[in-house]
Write a structure and sequence with these properties.
With about 350 residues, this protein is of the alpha/beta class. It is built from 15 helices and 10 strands. It has a single domain, classed as Alpha-Beta Barrel (TIM Barrel). The protein is globular, with a radius of gyration of 21 Å. Pfam families: Radical_SAM (PF04055). It is a peripheral membrane protein. InterPro entries: Aldolase_TIM, Elp3/MiaA/NifB-like_rSAM, RSAD2, RSAD2/Viperin_antiviral, rSAM, rSAM_sf.
Length: about 350
């Protein structure tokens, strides 16, 4: 129920806000935002004597963090011009604190964790990441553990040590032309991004990890035909994103990137999808589908709300718990389901031929 359907007068609205602040949060600003943004589900009335019942309903109807994306580092060795999670800090939580947060998420209903960055294999040469992957699969027994990486830092010995605990490895690849990758910034020096991609594809096959590809469609690759290359690589999923602007990350005065020159129109994006419609594993994500349909945790384990075109952080789940923090995530569960966010994500259930 929306607040407007309950409140009929300014006086009643003031009483409701004051009562809500007293009953639920100590911070006036946080609680007013809590109700007016509509981030939490449930009935918004805090008037006695039904207050306790409503509080229980809030807990019951709170968003369940089924699938979470944990960007534990912002540092990266690539300089993609459209990057929307840039190296604004170098902070990484201590390992045990990160594990504590992951345990809290699991206790709140998390089924899938995706580790991303930045470049997640950059910190501690992938050992920090490997320990988290092992913890999530072995200790927390999550159905799905996945990683998104540019692939440049991955070594075969990582697969040998941690491959059993990983369900899906997604490699970001925006073009099958090396010069285009260089123009985009999807490269480190003159090192071949495509050589890394094919090498990792083979390792995934060898060590029984489901292989996935993520591509951001932008002005430099929108006319490229990728059908043959994607068919040859045969990923379990090919996520195709429309290049997205996020204020403070890749747009605006405080941004570390200027992505305006990478932006394509909805029509251009659709034309790219139409040309690749024969690729059965293609999963398209327009700006509309992408913006609010992810539960994103930053390096401090704060949920990031992207509804206003920027990333507004909640308090950390390590400080206030998952249920309180997730109310400020801006998560659109309907769009999450509409874009195919829930799928067969455990490699044990994929019935892949290794």
């Amino acid at each position: 129920m929306q607040l407007s359907s309950v409140v009929t007068s300014p006086k009643l609205l003031l009483q409701l806000c004051i009562s809500t602040v007293q009953c639920f949060l100590s911070s006036v600003f946080s609680k007013v935002r809590y109700w007016t943004t509509g981030a939490c589900k449930g009935t918004s009335s805090a008037v006695s004597p039904v207050n306790n019942e409503l509080d229980q309903k809030e807990v019951q109807n709170a968003t369940i963090p089924t699938s979470v994306n944990y960007h534990f580092t912002r540092k990266c060795n690539y300089k993609c011009g459209f990057c929307f999670h840039t190296a604004k800090t170098s902070f990484v939580l201590p390992l045990e604190e990160a594990k504590r947060g992951l345990k809290l998420l699991t206790e709140s209903g998390m089924e899938k964790i995706n580790f991303s960055g930045g470049e997640p294999f950059l910190h501690d040469k992938g050992e920090f990441l490997g320990k988290l992957v092992q913890f999530c699969k072995q200790d927390l027994q999550l159905p799905s553990v996945s990683i998104v990486s540019n692939g440049s830092m991955i070594k075969e010995k990582w697969f040998q040590k941690y491959g059993d605990y990983l369900d899906i490895l997604a490699i970001s690849c925006d073009s099958f032309d090396e010069e285009t990758n260089q123009l985009i910034g999807r490269a480190q020096g003159r090192k071949s991004h495509l050589d890394c991609l094919y090498k990792i594809r083979n390792w995934c096959q060898q060590y029984k990890v489901a292989f996935k590809i993520n591509s951001v469609i932008n002005t430099f690759n929108v006319d490229e035909d990728m059908v043959e290359s994607i068919t040859q690589l045969d990923p379990v999923r090919w996520k195709v994103f429309q290049c997205l602007l996020i204020d403070g990350e890749n747009a605006g005065e405080k941004a570390l990137r200027e992505a305006e020159r990478f932006i394509i129109s909805d029509q251009q994006f659709q034309e790219f999808l139409d040309r690749h419609s024969s690729v059965s594993c293609l999963v398209p994500e327009s700006n509309e589908k992408m913006r609010n349909s992810y539960l994103i945790l930053d390096e401090y384990m704060r949920f990031l709300d992207c509804r206003e075109g920027r990333k507004d952080p909640s308090k950390s789940i390590l400080d206030v718990g998952v249920k309180d923090a997730i109310c400020f995530s801006g998560f659109d569960e309907y769009m999450f389901l509409k874009r195919g966010g829930k799928y067969v994500w455990s490699k044990a259930d994929m019935k892949l031929e290794w």
